[in-house]
Design goal:
The chain has 4 helices and 6 strands. The chain is α+β, with helices and mostly antiparallel strands. It is globular and about 40 Å long.
Length: 155
């Protein structure tokens, strides 16, 4: 399946999972599972804003960093710069935080609710050059779907 077809399938799957789910945390956890399995990521997860750092949220993959300062690493930089970051080679990214040495490419997409960043979605791959603009577009759309479940509380 090509990338666009994969995402169309993932959007349909997410719509079905979100349809009868009223709470944010189960919806976020299922979105992570959908993306992890559907895209074959090495690591897939959320970090949520708390003060001046990001705190680990639902994820799938190996053990992760639990806190990331604003402006640090790919996640902290995407948050600080208020934009998606696509990194084809994380080893070339200044200040990359290596939670896992197996990660070679990364994409981080801000998670916004009412135009405010409340977290970031972080995907890592063992393959170099794994993510592109199409990923950023579809991931942003999926995050917009998830934002409808946000009420400032997890459950």
């Amino acid at each position: 399946m090509d990338r666009k077809a994969t995402y169309k399938h993932l959007v349909r799957q997410t719509e079905a999972l979100f349809k009868d789910e009223a709470y944010f945390l189960p919806a976020a956890a299922n979105l992570i599972a959908v993306l992890h399995e559907g895209l074959g990521n090495w690591w897939t997860g959320f970090y949520f804003v708390r003060g001046e750092e990001l705190i680990l949220g639902p994820f799938q993959g190996p053990v992760a960093c639990t806190r990331i300062a604003k402006g640090k690493g790919v996640c902290g930089t995407a948050w600080n710069e208020n934009r998606s970051l696509i990194v084809p080679d994380v080893h070339a990214f200044p200040g990359h935080i290596a939670c896992s040495p197996a990660s070679n490419a990364e994409i981080v997409v801000p998670f916004r609710v009412n135009q405010q960043i409340v977290g970031v979605l972080d995907l890592d791959s063992t393959d170099f050059n794994y993510y592109g603009e199409e990923d950023a577009t579809y991931l942003s759309h999926l995050l917009e779907m998830l934002a409808k479940k946000w009420e400032g509380k997890l459950l």
